[in-house]
Amino acid sequence: GKENVDSRHSRGRGGETTRFHTVNVAQPVRFSRKCPTGWHHYEGTASCYRVYLNGENYWDAVQTCQRVNGSLATFTADQELRFILAQEWDLEEKAFVRKDQRRFWVGYQYVITNRNHSLEGHWEVAYKGPSEVFLPPDPIFGTLAMSEKENVLCAQLQCFHFPTLRHHGLHSWFAENCYEKSSFLCKRSQTCVDIKDNIVDEGYYFTPKGNDPCLSCTCHNGEPEMCVAALCERPQGCQQYRKDPKECCKFTCLDP
């Protein structure tokens, strides 16, 4: 909102009048950023998602996701999957074999139970999380350059580049050799992100993203709560000034 300036008068020593000006009077704030830069937020699951383009095999992709406090993505409902498919990810075309199709490792594995005439088996969640997840339908089998001793394939979600196909939710599931290199989709819980894009741990104070750098909140379940605002004294001897958007009570004087 607009800057509010509150002028207050008090009687000082010797009877002179002193004027105090406070700026940055706290306004209601909507917190729109609950994920670090580069991640997409979905309110339905309070989660953040990011595609990594560096081609890695399935096991390396698992470790990369774990290093950012996440896991390879699984999906709790069809609405969550449709959200993923509809996103315009920041992707490089050279990372994919076909420009109109994109595949990502996700957090499922296909366990083969019978090799006789067809590869019979079933999907399992690779790493069980706190929420129930749905399992994919029967897969399309990929290159299958695997030995006879292996009985596990890994899941790739294929989505499409064209917006009309993406927004209609068109996609495919592939069961692929886990040692093939591919881009992958990580998922993590939403988190508190401060005004300088740092991730904030549970229970700590921070200034959330928004337009009030003088706000201080407590991080609770990935949300800013119990917020208080500081009021700043107007800069002395300066008529025109600009507030620093990321530092509380810091001004730049614009006077000639």
UniProtKB/TrEMBL annotation:
<dbReference type="InterPro" id="IPR001304">
    <property type="entry name" value="C-type_lectin-like"/>
</dbReference>
<dbReference type="InterPro" id="IPR016186">
    <property type="entry name" value="C-type_lectin-like/link_sf"/>
</dbReference>
<dbReference type="GO" id="GO:0016020">
    <property type="term" value="C:membrane"/>
</dbReference>
<feature type="domain" description="C-type lectin">
    <location>
        <begin position="44"/>
        <end position="187"/>
    </location>
</feature>
<dbReference type="Pfam" id="PF00059">
    <property type="entry name" value="Lectin_C"/>
</dbReference>
<dbReference type="InterPro" id="IPR001007">
    <property type="entry name" value="VWF_dom"/>
</dbReference>
<dbReference type="InterPro" id="IPR042378">
    <property type="entry name" value="IDD"/>
</dbReference>
<dbReference type="InterPro" id="IPR016187">
    <property type="entry name" value="CTDL_fold"/>
</dbReference>
<protein>
    <submittedName>
        <fullName>IDD protein</fullName>
    </submittedName>
</protein>
